[in-house]
Amino acid sequence: xxxxxxxxxxxxxxxxxxxxxxxxxxxxxxxxxxxxxxxxxxxxxxxxxxxxxxxxxxxxxxxxxxxxxxxxxxxxxxxxxxxxxxxxxxxxxxxxxxxxxxxxxxxxxxxxxxxxxxxxxxxxxxxxxxxxxxxxxxxxxxxxxxxxxxxxxxxxxxxxxxxxxxxxxxxxxxxxxxxxxxxxxxxxxxxxxxxxxxxxxxxxxxxxxxxxxxxxxxxxxxxxxxxxxxxxxxxxxx
Length: 238
Known about the structure:
Helix content is 38%, strand content 27%.
């Protein structure tokens, strides 16, 4: 597997005083699911925002498919094949499900869109049933599915998911993680940020642990699940 995304010694600030990322280095190889775990304030969301161009790094390098993308505008990065599903879903509430998905397909050629719609509706049948419904009237789980479906309409090479299980009922969480596996099996590389460390490490092949903007651990998922410090701090197991 070759390196699809490479983050090297990344530093990101909010304003001039809040040093949110302190020299973070992360690699995601093509075909993997890699997870980022850590408590609130660890820098997980900041990392994804910096990679996708929402935030600009102060120092360090972000490379995607071998090309430097650090500091490029988000729409340019999206065109390269990197899709970001943000924490909180951020669907367009006054647009229908169909219209939200259309927004995800903004860069695609018209003849390909119908096939992409069919694929999204296969993964998320409820979206096909509610394609004329306003997104703001969907449940939290349905909005998460819509946000993921919208990202898939862009045909990403790398899909970044920020807290996809947040605030969802356990049965919906199970469904979301099942779909994450299916998306990856279809050939999409995934970088997953998730507070539910156990579920994230169960679905991922490798993981990174962040604490207050610093990388403190990295290993394959099986090793992290057995690590006593990880088990105590993030899995609630003594």
